[in-house]
Each structure stands twice: as structure tokens, then as C-alpha cells.
Amino acid sequence: MLALAATSGLNVLTSCSVQKSADELPLPGAVAKELEMPDGSTIRYRAYEHLYYVTNVEDSAYQYLNLYIPESVYESGGADVPIFFRTYVGGYRAAKAKEPSGLDASGRALQEGYVVCIPGSRGNDSAVEDDGKKVYTGRVPAGLLDLKAAIRYLRANDARLPGNAERIITDGTSAGGAMSSLLGATGNSPLYEPYLEKMGAADARDDVFAAVCYCPITDLDHADMAYEWLYQYADPTVRPLTGEQQEIAQELAQAYPEYLNSLQLKTADGTLLTADNYLDYLKTFLIRSAQKARDEGCTIPDGIGVILNVVKRGGPHGPQGAQQGQPGAQRPQGPQNFAPQEQGDFVLDIDLPAYLSYVATTRELKTPPSFDAMGVLTDAASPENQVFGDADGGSANFTAYSLRKATGNPTAEPDEVLRRRIYLMNPMNFIADQGSTKAPHWFIRHGARDRDTAFPVPLNLATKLMNNGYDVDFFLPWNRPHSGDYNLDELFAWVKRVTAAP
Ligand code: DHB
Fold it and tell me: Rounded to two decimals, what is the model's pTM?
């Protein structure tokens, strides 16, 4: 972190000669800018833009970061200010290093007085021309390596840049949420080292302080199974499948319990989770979500699987209970944040098949396989097939299941190099692994009607982190589809809390 005098500008830090390592790359002068916020306020900040974070730049459109420092940092001389690191990765595509926006967490972070870093990174659609040939630059794990290199750059330059690189909070949504989870789980892992070295990343640590993950599309090698295992319980009429699709769906669903059981996850009270009790566990989170919505006065429609004990208020006979759903049902143990009985309704239970069917009516479900689709029942490559592909623009299967279907070879496996790349893209592989430094703090959100990946994916991520002793704030916000950077008051109250600790 750079110690700042109240009057110091950043221009003094400008240096220009060609250097050898990323921590010695030239730093341009900072430019004064302003951002109008939706509440009418104006944030004044200084911008460092186009900071290339590796020395061997392969794709100059993406491999740099922008850094934004609110004026309040200079006014207070605050060198200890956390850095909010917002990636705009979506759909596993390349992401530009943009300017902060008043419409998402980047602008809000500036308003809160944090330094904001917006890194660019390569992805499934980034390419350069080499000798007249199109070379795809962003195949796995390139995008993640870029983000790790950006973190290393911030750390290597901590003494000459504002913000505290020991307090980096990563934030992303969907594929970006997956990237945020990977940054949080894979810190300093030696498995990425050879790639980072080759790129000319700074010789510095790349662990982060906190990871904010909105609807992370992750655990890609098990996400197809999770999807079919969960949505097999939805009413088949809301997701009409062809005979061929049904067969695929069934095979995938049947394969999931073995994986789920292998995780050896536990509930908060230490009960081992298996495919047999997992749905009850999931229900406790959906109940908590519906209960919070009720406590906040939301109407929950009948017929979507939420079983309420409606407490009628007022009237000639005073408060009285009128129960929906099974008579005599007891309120489950899980949710703690309910209002006293006379102030609201109790969510007694969730009828999971009805609820999942409701989710499927809010947005059509994906068809099986949802992620590793190429060559199974379609020739089309999913964004995930593309990102696992090669520099020539080819796409690849990343599960043995789909590879076998696609090739017709019942014993086919991804080759060793691909297996390694698949491994490097799954945060679940690193959470219990002593070889990486995990973020101590996690904020994970997945909308309670988000069908882009199945609930077990974010829930397993959160549970594995909790089981391994990390501080995890996990919630399924009610009536929320696939989206991110919402409820920013809640997010930034959390950021303030976790960064307040010495
Ligand atoms: C995203 C959404 C998806 O459904 C998916 O499969 C991959 C990425 C996204 O919004 O980033």
C-alpha cells in the first residue's frame, strides 16, 4: 500500500522506461474523473488506466487493468483502503477493463471509499491475428490466469499504488462469479505457476482477502449431472423432453449421487450429507429465503410449493392461525430470522417438486446436457465447450460422459492435458487442498429462481467452504433470477464488516 500525503498527486509516480518484470512496468499518470451516481451524487476519483499486468502480452485488447481511486483516499491519506476487484466476465467470454459504473457494485465501491480495480481478461471469444491466422487466446485457463496476474500486479505494486493489496475483494457474476470463486480458492497454488511465469506475471502472491460470487456457474465437470438430478423432480410437463433427451437426463441424474456422496459434505450441525438427505438440506435454504421475503412483506403466491402457516391479524377475533399445507406440520428447525408469530407468516415447508416446477415456468430450463452439450444431442458448442477448446478455435468436451456420447467411444476420457485444464477450472478441487491459500471471507448468492445452474452447485461450494472453516455468507435471495450486484446495501455492509477486522 502506498502511504499518501493529503496533497500528493499521483503524477509524481510516473516512470517510463521499459522494464523486466510486471512490478516494474511503467505507471502512467493518474487522470481526474467523475462519476454520476443514480442518487444524483457525484464521485470524484483518479484513474490509472491501461496498466498491462504481464510482460509477455499476448492479447493487448484484454491483458491490462484499470484502477480507480476515490478522492477521499487522498484526503484521508488512507493507505489501508481495500481494493474492490470487479471482473465483468460473462458467458466465459473475454472481458474488457471497463470504467466503473453507477449501476453496479463498481460505482458503489468507489462511493464507499474503496479503491476499484477492473481487470480485463481473455475468454472464449478473444483472438489475435498471427501471420494471417486467427489464434484464440482465451482458452482455459487463460482467463483465470489473467485475473491472477492482475492480482499479482496489484500486490507487486502495493508500495507505489493506492489501496491495500492485502485487502482485495473479488466480485463477479455467473461465469464471473465462477472466476471470483476460483480466485478465492486457488491463491498461490503452484499448479498455475508455470503458466503465470511464462506470461510474465509479477513474482508475487495471488491470494485474495474475500470473494464475492454471484450465481457462480462453476463445478462445470459435474454441473450437467447436478442439473438433471435436481430437475428430475420437476413436473415433466413444464419441461417437455424428447425420448432421447429423457435418456440423457436419466443417465446424468443417476450419476450424480456418487459424486455428491464423494464430497462428504456436512450440515452446520455435523450431519453427513448424502444424496438421500441432501434435498432436505437444500429445502432449509429455500425456506429461509421464502421466510425472509415474508418477513419483508412480500406476497408469495399460492401453488408454487411454499407451505405457509398464515397468521391472520386483527379482525373481531384477533390474531388466529390458518394453516396452508399439511395439517399439524411443525415449523422446521433451520430458519432463525423469523418474526414473532403474531407479526407474520411462517414458512412451514417447501414442496420441492412444486417449487422446482415453478422455477421452470419462470424461465425455460436448459436441455440435457446443460453445459457439456456439444456432440451429444446437438452439434452446437456451449460457451463452456468453447472455453475448453483450443487456440485454433476448436471446442472441446470436458466430461467423460459427453465425450463418450460425442465420439461413440464408450471408454473415451479427456486426454491428460485437458484433464489438467479441467482440474484448474474447478474451485471445488482446491478448497480442502493445503497447496493453495483460500480467501478467509466469502459472500455467495444464487437467486432462488435462478435456473442457469442447479442449486447444488453454489450450495456445495458454500458448504465445502464452511466445512473447511471459512467465513461464508450464503443466501438464495427470493424471487431472484440469474443476476448479480444486487442488494448493494447488504453487500457493502458485509464488506465493511469483514474488512474492519485487523
Ligand atoms: C453464463 C450463464 C450460463 O447459463 C452459462 O452456462 C455460462 C455463463 C453467464 O451469464 O455468464
Answer: 0.91
